[in-house]
Amino acid sequence: MKDLLTAAAVLFGSLVLFLPLTAMTIIVAADTVWIIGTSAPLQNDLVFAAVCLLALGFGYVTAMEICRVRLHGFDQLHRGTRSRRLARHGVLGVVAVAAAIALCRILLEAISVGFANDDPEIIGLAVAGLLALSWVGVRSLSAFRAGIRRFQNGAAK
Description:
By secondary structure, the protein is an all-alpha fold. The protein has helices at 2-38, 45-72, 82-116, 120-152.
């Protein structure tokens, strides 16, 4: 009974914490990509509805994967057939890229606010944030490649 309550609490926490955050991150990233591609904000209701549904789906999958990892460990990311693992990593990769796009947008807007208000502190902090985001991205990609190599060599099986 205690394990069931723990699992329910972890599931509820993952859904409450990560589903809305992931959905909003994907919506902001999609809007950013739309603005870059068309030079106009996302105003098409049908496209926005599709983006919202996709964002909720990605948020749900992300919350479920986080819940499984918290309950059973990181080996849960490698369960199932090769196509399911690829799809799982693809969804989590899309969420990671969307988060990077959203953070870059926020930091670039901070830089433009700093220039508009002639405030070098805001510009410096935003540039430092972009540099930190770049460093984290490089470290994350190298750790991901190392983990994939370790898994392919049989160490994680």
